[in-house]
Amino acid sequence: MHSSSSSSHPFYAYCREKLQEIEQQGRYRRFTPLSRQSEHYPVYDKNTKDPQKTTPVVVWSSNDYLGMGVEPEVMQAAIDAINHYGAGAGGTRNIAGTHPLHAALEAELADLHGKEAGLLFVSGYVSNQASLQTILTSMPGWITFSDQQNHASMIAGIKGARGSSCVIFKHNDLQDLEEKLASAPKDAPKLIAFESVYSMDGDIADIKAICALARKYQALTYLDEVHAVGLYGKQGGGVSERDQVAQEVDIIEGTLAKGFGVHGGYVTASRDIIEFLRLAASGFIFTTALPPSIAAAALASVRLVRRQNWRREKLFERVNCFRQKLRQAGIPFMQTESHIVPVMIGDAELCKEISRRLLEEYHLYATPINYPTVPRGTERLRLTPNPFHTDAMMDDMVHALKQLLPKQETAQIVAKAMA
Ligand SMILES: *Cc1c(COP(=O)(O)O)cnc(C)c1O
After folding, report:
1. Can you say how many angstroms the Cα of residue 347 is from the centroid of all Cα atoms in its chain?
2. How is residue 402 annotated by DSSP?
3. Which candidate in 6, 210, 344, 370 could, as Cys together with 348 as Cys, close a disulfide (CB 3.0–4.6 Å)?
4. Ligand 1: does its nearest atom lie under 6 Å from the Cβ of 151?
């Protein structure tokens, strides 16, 4: 047998050493195999090597915020589409991969955001990376003003745009953004890239104010609404819909994989911008289209979410109920402006240990969020209650946290982190 570890290429040794280093720093990520029970969301089976041995676990870290991924109508749309059209798209959008469902979904998303057109990508990550890189390599001299906490997918697109430059502004800091816009060359094409809901701290950008600055300094606006679509606004058009500023944003990007519970990413904008991306973005052109089943399920989901406001109301009722229970139990958490409930731990090892014990002793799953996802010292459990978390499930989580959190220490850490 070929033994790869003995290969003399230096990359093998590099990997070996790097992995040891990551392990020593406590940053080695190990997957937890969990399979969702579609009829009992948020209950999953925790899988082991023995397929007969599974334990039910209540998951508190899913980004399927509304449970649309297990909505029977959504699942049925995928099943019907597979029966009619098969399992895969069979080609890129240009090469035999475009299905009427893709066009219908793009039109639905454009309408959701009040834009002329939309374009699907295979994921939200790719939609950001491909769109930003393509825009920023179009005209010469682009300058991007990028929020310090922007997602890795936006950073990938911005960094990948050779010839353009990037200025990072302090997170959600309008004054810093304005100073930086003002000191940039007047005639350079500018773009402001930011998010609405930031998923780790759960804070929300002032979209209206950022758009006002964009007008003042003639910058294009690119808004990632990934953690907001489906959840905010009368029809789930995100914070830009809630704040009635969607018209002022040039490009709105979203995912079909979080609030909409399925898969895929997209951008919506003016017809010309979308056509330009469709014709120029490598990450759109050279990859196989989303399977028709995914487009069908996503379309069913978006349509339901748009007209069923009770889903959003139920989500926030559950989030508020959970916060109330945490408060009553004296468990410190960050009171965010969004649906995200971070419980601060403040130490990487402790964070991992609490997560491990939650799973093993209490059958509750909450992902530990450690550096480099968040700054050192702000390690946390990121809890995302959804409409299917019952009062009893919440009580279980509150009880477990009460047992596992080292009380005083945590209070101090939280005070420090919030100061
Ligand atoms: C998850 C995420 C993405 C990527 O979306 P996917 O559809 O999961 O690829 C983009 N932006 C932000 C802010 C995200 O959190």
Report:
1. 24
2. H
3. 370
4. yes
Map 186-252 to HEC letters: CCCCEEEEEECECCCCCCECCHHHHHHHHHHCCEEEEEECCCCCCCCCCCCCCHHHHCCCHHHCCEE
Q: What is the pLDDT, as a whole number, of residue 25?
A: 83
Task: Compute, in angstroms, the gap from residue 222 CA to the centroid of ligand 1.
Answer: 14
Tens-place pLDDT, residues 187-241: 999 999 999 999 999 999 999 999 999 999 999 999 999 999 999 999 999 999 9
Q: Letter for the amino acid at 203?
A: D
153 lines ligand 1 (CB under 6 A): yes
* Backbone φ and ψ of 342, nearest 5°: -85, 130
pLDDT over 70 (residue 412): no
Among 150, 151, 158, which is best to mutate for testing ligand 1, by the most ligand atoms less than 8 A from CB?
Answer: 151
| 125 within ligand 1 shell (Cβ under 6 A) | yes
The answer to whether 395 and 401 are in contact (CB under 8 A) is no
Residue 285 to residues 109, 125, 157: CA-CA distances in angstroms? 20, 15, 16
CA-angle at 236, arms to 234 and 242, nearest 5°: 50
Distance 258 CA to ligand 1 centre (A): 8
CA of residue 123 to ligand 1 center, whole Å = 8
- Residue 277: CB within 6 Å of ligand 1? no
pLDDT tens digit sequence for 159-168 = 999 999 999 9
Contacts of 191 (CB under 8 A, 6+ apart): 132, 135, 136, 142, 143, 144, 145, 219, 220, 221, 222
- Does the pTM surpass 0.70? The reply is yes
Instruction: Find the 96 Cα to ligand 1 centroid distance in Å.
Output: 27
Q: Is 258 a catalytic residue?
A: yes
Report phi then psi at 78, rounded to 5.
-70, -45
Q: Which ligand 1 atom is the nearest neighbour of the CA of 153?
A: 10
Question: Which residue in 46, 180, 258, 352 is the catalytic one?
Answer: 258
Average pLDDT over all residues of the chain:
95
